[in-house]
Amino acid sequence: xxxxxxxxxxxxxxxxxxxxxxxxxxxxxxxxxxxxxxxxxxxxxxxxxxxxxxxxxxxxxxxxxxxxxxxxxxxxxxxxxxxxxxxxxxxxxxxxxxxxxxxxxxxxxxxxxxxxxxxxxxxxxxxxxxxxxxxxxxxxxxxxxxxxxxxxxxxxxxxxxxxxxxxxxxxxxxxxxxxxxxxxxxxxxxxxxxxxxxxxxxxxxxxxxxxxxxxxxxxxxxxxxxxxxxxxxxxxxxxxxxxxxxxxxxxxxxxxxxxxxxxxxxxxxxxxxxxxxxxxxxxxxxxxxxxxxxxxxxxxxxxxxxxxxxxxxxxxxxxxxxxxxxxxxxxxxxxxxx
Amino acid sequence: xxxxxxxxxxxxxxxxxxxxxxxxxxxxxxxxxxxxxxxxxxxxxxxxxxxxxxxxxxxxxxxxxxxxxxxxxxxxxxxxxxxxxxxxxxxxxxxxxxxxxxxxxxxxxxxxxxxxxxxxxxxxxxxxxxxxxxxxxxxxxxxxxxxxxxxxxxxxxxxxxxxxxxxxxxxxxxxxxxxxxxxxxxxxxxxxxxxxxxxxxxxxxxxxxxxxxxxxxxxxxxxxxxxxxxxxxxxxxxxxxxxxxxxxxxxxxxxxxxxxxxxxxxxxxxxxxxxxxxxxxxxxxxxxxx
Lengths: 338, 290
Fold this sequence. Notes:
heterodimer, A: six-stranded mixed sheet, B: ABC transporter involved in vitamin B12 uptake, BtuC, 75% helix
């Protein structure tokens, strides 16, 4: 008898809770229906604390939430082959916009976009083309130009004339950036040596550390890295070797105050606002919007360099941004070692 | 020049090998007592997080060591309760524990991310540029070899792994011994995690161990359940890893992935050359009193 009572009350409580949850959900859904629903896809875990680009984009998404009041859902750790499935899931649930955070998602975006014409599929990373459908768009940073700014900063800050560059995997964005870095550095210091190393993954802190330490042993005193969570492994090695590192896309100072010289920021807030405004004005169309040098700026140096060197860097970067200094576009296939 | 290159290579290899040695010793001890320690990766991950958490929140490296040991003890008790007391399949529970630990550590790290996303202070090297973790790993390896092959309690432990029922008949409390050994083994594995995060990279990230526990498992099999040989196997893997990056840095013009394959090819070669090994006969068999 007692057992039957327990089962009855369990079912009773479960029913009440379930109905209550459904009612509550209805209320929330009604509220959410008035907001623009955005689905964002990341291939890394915990993007808020991830690599530079992921971290910067996460800040951009906060603009959509806080300034536009949009409903942003984030999918993390999505392997590239599963991106299409997640994007289709968002579109099926009535999301108006699906954001792709890395160019590695392009193939899946191109596969899914034609099936959901009512949803906008937006690539927030470097691409050179778009699928032949009207419901796609891209905000594509000019990573070559970005790289030139890093190169100029690193070359002017380096005392040894050797710059260490650590990449996770050789993908398009990094190839462009590192080529730009070499040319930028050589423009201001022709004899500078740039050592480029690839770790083979984005996440292994220990491997990132060892690669960076090896570059320090070869004389590098200023470093730059573009990778995922492995970034912190690079910072550790730079701090151990008493070098300086330039942060990528977001301000990394709090992560390693002794090692981070400055960061070259990408104004992702502006980039996301442009995307949001275009969507609201119904002008978000099949187009690649170039994110150029005007979106890039130096973070505070916090006294890491002599005032004269810092001023020199800032003036040179301002001249590049105004077009007063032209840096050649030249590719260095040897850094890929294919 | 060559001399300094070689010393640098050996130091880098030892850095890479140290976390593996701790884990390998834990696996070896558990398997010598007849319990497969497949959950070593999860325990290592828990230890890696506990070390950073303890150091940051306790503002002291010793707090990091203590919390690592506590994490190891808790993980050991959970594993021992399920695989020794209940007992369930040791392989299944090991895999389940690895997945559980990955989820739990990521969840805790997410909650404490802002506090933990800092580089903890470096632990200064003790001797010849070696971290205290590396020296402790070497000392424990020698002590474990002596304990297992030169002492009475070591013989008892090995007898439980070789023939559980005979050991029971001779008066050994198999359940008690396996329970205790699994806790010690888990503390060692957790220390492997601490050697990685506290002693090497000074930070934590989701899944920071990246399969190093499984590499240690391979090292134990290659080392034929002998602490000295297992340490050697870990060191060979470390040399492979150190060579991979040095090869890339020579500017040979080859795709970096060829160099990154070196440690795995080296491990495969060594395991292949070592041939078939026979482990403790009753390892992996749940003990049911007749």
